[in-house]
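Table S2 (text version). Query chain:
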Amino acid sequence: MSHLAPVWFSVTDLDVVQGHGSWVTTTDGTEYLDFTCGIAVTSTGHCHPKVVAAIQQQAERFIHAQVNVYRHDLLEPLAARLAGITPAGIDTFFFSNSGAEATEAAVKLAKQVTKRPHVVVFSGSFHGRTHLTMAMTTSKTSYRAGYAPLPGGVFVAPFPDPLRRGADLDDCIDEFRRLFRTQTGPDETAAVVIEPVLGEGGYTPAPAKLLDAIAELCAQHGILFVADEVQTGFGRTGRMFAIEHTNLIPDVIVMAKGIASGFPISAIGASAELMSQWPTGSHGGTYGGNPIGCAAALATIDVLTEPGFLDNVVERGEQLMDGLRRLQAAHPRILDVRGIGLMVGVQLDDAALVAATQAHCVREGKLLLMNAGTDGSTIRWMPPLTVSADEIDLGLGAFGRALEALG
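Corresponding structure-token output:
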């Protein structure tokens, strides 16, 4: 019998023993092309040698140095490194362990700064699985079912449907503004939180016009504009952060997933002025700023900022999108191909076809993919940012063969 809780869902039944680059190896020695990337986490691929070396070296010096007791010598270097790569004005950081924890920390900061109780999110969002972040998550009821009552004070604005090609964008913006006249007044709203590209909600980029409307309203009413870059950050979209595709600067940025190539560390960033209003001792965490996590993050950032690295992400993303659009032209059941960089969604006309395609890719193509979207009708492509052109072609080939076989 297994002694593991059955609460985890499983994409495959594979048992793996090691990973390198874009590949994982099972107990029987079979290699699979891993385009799940640990759910967009292994940004530099599995076991990048620079990240491995940094972890090994740090493990010999300190495994756990609790930040409330003393400060280890990688905390400030990581914060300074983040200040150098985040949008202008983001210069002060708090470290925790996961995306959900960081999102919750961002909301707590916003409430302390504004002295207001409410937060606004968007339909299709995913912000985590703690009670508060479940209340902020609207991509699937399965993430929330059985856990009510969830915390109050969370209001949901509409997000444009990608299949309508922006036809409902103005309506969504009108409803967003109307929400502040009908559900939560600006003077009782602490933050608006949005993913620049919906993750679990379907790999759908937020239209620039929507982001502009959010930033404008937040600035007008002293509401904090929070960019949840948990899945989009650290090069995933071809820029260090997805918000950089706009001219906007968020008040708070939430970071996790790709920050440390798989080691559990997360962060929120804001200005020193905002962070100074967070009462000392009102938030914390035992493992936040773990020294091995800091070492892994510093090494990851070094890799991501190497000359030409993000250019390759853009090129591989274009290669992937071009290949998928060629498949779309031959397969009418592909309704949409969308994304930025190496964060790409392929929406099919049926969730059952998505599941069958995934299974075929694993069985016949030795390719690992995941789904997304409220109804599970989108396949998300999130290969490591180190993926090669040949590996993209391998993935496209396996996917194309699956579509041919399944009709």
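Notes on Table S2: Residues 347 and 378 are 4 Å apart (CA to CA). The two ends are 39 Å apart (CA to CA).
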